[in-house]
Every structure is written in structure tokens, then in C-alpha cells.
Amino acid sequence: MSTATSPALLEVERLTVEFGAPGAALQAASDISFSVDAGEVVGIVGESGSGKSVTALAVLGLIDAPGRVRAERLAFAGRDLQSMSERERRSLLGGEIAMIFQDPMTSLNPSFTVAFQLMETIGLHEGGSRSARRARALQLLKDVEIPDPERRLDAFPHQLSGGMSQRVMLAMAIACNPRLLIADEPTTALDVTVQAQMLALLLRLQRERGMALVLITHDLGVVAEVAQRVLVMYAGQVVESAAAADLFARPHHPYTEALLASLPERNAGRRRLASLAGVVPGAFDRPAGCLLSPRCPYVRERCREIRPPLFDVGASRARCYFPIGAEARP
Amino acid sequence: MSIAPVLETHALTKHYAVSSGLFAAAGSVRALEDVSLSLAPGRTLAIVGESGCGKSTLARQIAMLETPTSGSVVIGGVDATGADAATRRALRKTVQMVFQNPFASLNPRKKIGLALEEPLAINTTLSRAEREAHGRAMLTKVGLSPEHYRRYPHMFSGGQRQRVAIARALMLEPRLVIADEPVSALDVSIQAQVLNLLMDLQESTGVAYVFISHNLAVVELIADEVVVMYLGRVMERAAKADLFAVPRHPYTRALLASTPRVDAARGEAALARAARSALSGELPSPLAPPSGCVFRTRCPYAIDRCAEVVPPLEPTSGAHAAACIRQNEIG
Q1: Does the predicted interface ipTM exceed a cut of 0.85?
Q2: Pick from A197, A219, A279: CB nearest B157
Q3: Fewer beta carbons below 10 Å: N end or C end of chain A?
Q4: How many domains does chain A have?
């Protein structure tokens, strides 16, 4: 997916995140491979427990013991993140790699003003005089389109609405001109009209700054409108990866197909929603074969026995022996 | 309509008193202003709006959990607001609620069988064995199995818990169930299962739903009629098909335009779309709502006159009504 000439901005190969005792570990994310090019918008979509946040945290180096992260390759801008010193890796965070989380109310420190928190970030990575940092902070609030920015600078988080707090988080994230922004459910806590404003803002900043954006969400509609490429996750695995337009028009994995089919907007005029029976397997009842096999309408003997790898299906990839819309595999 | 409505509200208003500090004068939050609606038996009325629009306040008034500041709630032809305690107790049996978060709405220390039996123990004279038989039968109805009866809530997934909450709401065979964001906390594949269940149960029991949601895609599926609220007031009221085909109020249009859809345009086009719906700013404080039309501070079509008069909810055709003085101009 990345061009052969220049390496991708972020390269992740065979990433696995485990929790629990070595003998009976739960793989919260297993065998995750993807890359993000500079300036690209990649969506990671999946239901709760599918491993999307854990994947992001592992890339950022924020999984603490007893969690264990393994990967064949984990590199940012050609630099190997795993062999890097703790200090080097820390300095990337908030600098070249930034992140925003779902709940802006708990991400901001309630005891300090917006100006203090923004200036702290700027000071940490760039330094500068107090007045210069304050001027930068003000400019950042303008960049994220906060109304009345002079006044908001001295506001405390509790004086801001949810949408406004998320804009402050975004201002903090872009303070050091990151090359990669990872946004984990950035609009989930927001109302739909505010969400639309926030997504438009994210896309504008991404485009103007040539920043790569990894957008993690459970909302297929959001991914469809924002992302260029999409990874679909299920029970800790990537089950499909494709260009956004292809994924929504021609899903290859039965899980992707079922997700799309269960959307109310794809069921207009029908009396009942198409729905996938059963629930996502828990930590200790994962089947031996394909993780979707107990719920999959197309399941065959082989699916129950051996867990499938990702296969190329046209320009997409799908973790399925019998991908939809492809010649049946041997 | 010849059938008597199961629910009517007339000019329902609820203000909450607040004080902003020890010495500050008390103000009031106008959570609900002049809401009138009507729901026929076996039908679904969806209440749509964003946080702070008063939809949950409305639910609490209808469920008789609070006394409205003014106006009335009429359930099955009986006025609940002026009624005595005995009448209200009888009415409460006919109105039940399902809440958003199934992790918070079930008592973690109670086996779900007990949770299901409790409404019967309080409101009926059935014996223990009869109550249990009812409970087990209800579990089957909501797609769980009778052996789940003696399990604790933590042994269930979110979707299963919501099924338990629905089962509990139906134990007294209510005529009206108020579902406050019942699928918002659920994943999309589970959401589909629960929505199907709600529709199946309506078909088999004839229960009416007040379905509160912020998700227009879900509403488009399940509702018969829709009420769109903003800052405590009704902005638009219509049959579902009319609302989605010809939304008349600028706020309804903005809501529709803001809802992300998988089959909509992508990337740049999405940006353009967001700009077109052009809803700037955020919800004003309900402590000091704008004069005239409460939506005017964010409305792309607002003119000076909007600040002067509170727009009445005017029927445009039949039951389709919108509270906007410019609805015919903006077409």
C-alpha cells in the first residue's frame, strides 16, 4: 500500500498486544499490519473490544506492564520505535506524533486554565518566552476556530462545553505541528451538529498541514465520510483493509458485509434490520478457527479449523478463505 | 383519528430552579416549554434532539417521575397531573421506561429473575411461583433463555442486559414504554438485534413507544411519527415519511445534513456538505435562552424578526408542523 520509493510514515507489521499471564494470555490485538503514508487519512473501525484503541496505544508506546507489545516492525518516518530509548520515544509524543481521545472532559486537567495547559505543551517541545508561548496558544485557539479565543485562553475546562474542550485538545495536539495525528473516537461524545463541525475542522487541518490522520471510530458513517483507507477490526484482528470507496461499495469480508447490512440507513423500506446473530467472542471463548466462524452465515468446515490469514482480494485485503465477490480459494 | 390516544401532553412546561452560588439570585432552567403531542396505541413516537434539548426531561414528565411546572400529561384519557395518589399509582403501571445504559439500570446485586419479578411483587397479587413463570416466559419473549433467570447482570453482555431491561419494562403489560436512547450504548450489530426486538414486541403486544434518540438513522427505521426538539421546544412535528422527505425547519435540515452516512459523499465533498448545513456555534444556555426563536443564534436563515416573536408550531399540511416563521420562504 505504501509506494516502494519512499517508506510510509508509520509502518506496523505483525503487531501483537497481550495482557495477562504468559500461559493464558489474552491477545487484545494480534497480527496487526498496516501502514500510513504522509498526509493520508486512515480509518480504523470496529465494535467495542475489537482492539482498535489498544492498537493505537501500542503504536504510541503507551501500553504499560503487564501488557506486552510485540511487533516485527514498528517504525515512524523510517525510525524503529522499538529500539529507540524511552526518552527518545517520549519526545516524539506530542511532537511529531500527537493524539486526541474520546472524552475531552477527562483529558484536560480541571485545575489549570486552557492557556496554562497549551503553554506547557509548547514549552516542553519548543520552549520560548512566556509571552511568545501565550501568543502561540492564542493562535492555536484561532486555528481550531474557538469563538472568542482571548477570553477562552483564561478559562478553566469546566467552563467549556464538550465541543469546545475537544477543540482545545485538538489545539494542544497540533501545537507542535505533528506529522501524524491519532484520533481515538474524537467525536463520539459530541452532538451530531457539533460532530460535523469537528470533522470538518479535522479534515481542514489535516489537509492544510499535510498531516497524516488515523481516525479510530465505531461509526461507519464517520469513516465513510472522512477516511481514504479503512481497516475493519474484529476481536483483535484486522479482518479487512481497503480503500474507503471500495469497502463501502464492495465489502469482501462477511463481517464487513454484516456490519454494513445492519445499518438502519441500508435497510430503508424494510421491516426488520439484517442482523448478525450472536455476540463478539470474549477473552476466553475465542474459537480455534476464524474468529467470526460461530456467527458467519457463510461458514464452512475449514473456517472452523484453521484461523485464516489476510488474503489479497483485488486491491483490498480480507481475512477470509471465501471472500465475498472473489473466486473461491482452493 | 378515532382511537383514543394512549398519551397526550398539553402545553407541557418544566422549569428547574437553580442558584449559581450562595449569594446569587436563583434562576430557572427552562428545560421544557410548551410541548404538546399525542400518541396513538401501538404506534411509535420518536423524540429527536441533541443534548440539552429537553428530551429526557420530557420522558420524566410522561413517566410521572416529576411534576411539570405547568401543562398536563394525559395517559389513556386520564389526566395524570391533577390526579390523586391512587390514580397516579394505577397510571404508573401502564407506563414503563427503558434507559440508555444497561450497565447502570440493572442492580448488580440482584439476580435478573428478581429484577423481573419485582414489578409483579409490588403491583399484583400473584404468588411467587406465578411470578417466576411470568418472568421465565418473558425472558423467552425477549430472546434470552429461561436458564438465564438466576444469573447476575455482570454475566450478560450489553445487548443481553438491554434485553433484560426491556423484559422488565414489559412485565406489567404496559400500554406505553418510554425508551430513552435504548440503543445508543450498543454496538451497531447488537443495535440491530435490539431494534428488531423492539419492533417484534410492538407487533405482538401492541405497546406504544416514546422512542428518544439522537440518531436519525435509527428513528427513520422505527418511528411512525417524529418530534424534533431544540432547547426545550418543539421545532418540528410530522409523520416520519414527511419529515425525512420534506424537512421544513432549518434545525431539522441541519440535523439531517450533519448525520454521517456511509453512502454519502466523501472527503472534500463531506467538508462542503458540512459548510452547507452551516450550523455555527453551540447550544445556548437554557438559563438564558435567546429571545424569540430559540434556534435563531445558530440558524443560517435567521432575520431580525426571529428575535421578536416565538414562532408558533404551524401546521403546513395535515399533521406536519414546524415552528419557523420563514418556513415557506426557505422552501
Answers
A1: no
A2: A279
A3: C
A4: 1
